[in-house]
Amino acid sequence: LSLKFGDIGNLKGLVIRFLLTTSYYQLSVQNWFSLHRLQLLYNHSIQATFNATRIYAPASYSYHCEHVSSLQRYDALLIPSSANDLSKLWEVTFTDFQIQGFNIQEGHFAYAKDCASFFSPAILMGLVMSLILLLVLAYALHMLIHLKSLDRHYECKASPAYFAQMKDNDMGDEKEPLRSGGNESYELRNQQFCKIYI
Q1: Distance in angstroms (rounded) separating the CA atoms of residues 58 and 22
Q2: Residues 94, 68 contacting (CB under 8 angstroms)
Q3: Does 19 reside within a domain?
Q4: pLDDT digits (tens, 9 = 90+) for 139-184
Q5: Most exposed of 52, 55, 130, 188 (fewest Cβ within 10 Å)?
Q6: What does the alpha-carbon distance between residue 167 and residue 28 come to, in Å, rounded to a whole number?
Q7: 75 domain residue, yes or no
Q8: For the chain, how many structural domains are there in total?
Q9: DSSP assignment, residue 108?
Q10: pTM listed for this prediction
Q11: What is the pLDDT at residue 82?
Q12: In the β-sheet with 62-69, what is the strand arrangement from edge to edge?
């Protein structure tokens, strides 16, 4: 498929040649076409050759892409065929590119297979973040379901509490000496503590 510019100023004599191939794939049970190579010719001599990657569609469809370019910022679907030829000197970019090589009816493009991937980096990042949020929510629900009510059981027992001898004589009726010796300790007879079981 050749695109000739005719007598347009400096582009006179420039031809862009698209080399398309068609193949039958048993897995999809249909023919597919692909752009195999792109050549730039000037005054009937080949100036640059680019190998095309990922430019394919079913033979009954057309192929559409916002940018088909040799530049990395546009995902570089066109790759110089050789490091030794003049392809490195050319930068090729097609904007709003659409091509169909076979099964053309009434001069119109068929339904287009778009180059936009369903799993772009932004979409993948959104899926990962959604998965993380779902895991956090599932863990929180799991913890809420297994949260038990606080059944409090109080068990109060008398317990001896020991304090060093105090100089306050007003508490004499509440204190009973335990043993005599170097340090005297006293037991508070009415001291109690409670244990709480949860």
Answers
A1: 9
A2: yes
A3: yes
A4: 999 888 887 765 555 455 555 555 555 555 545 455 555 455 555 5
A5: 130
A6: 100
A7: yes
A8: 2
A9: B
A10: 0.55
A11: 77
A12: 93-99, 62-69, 112-114
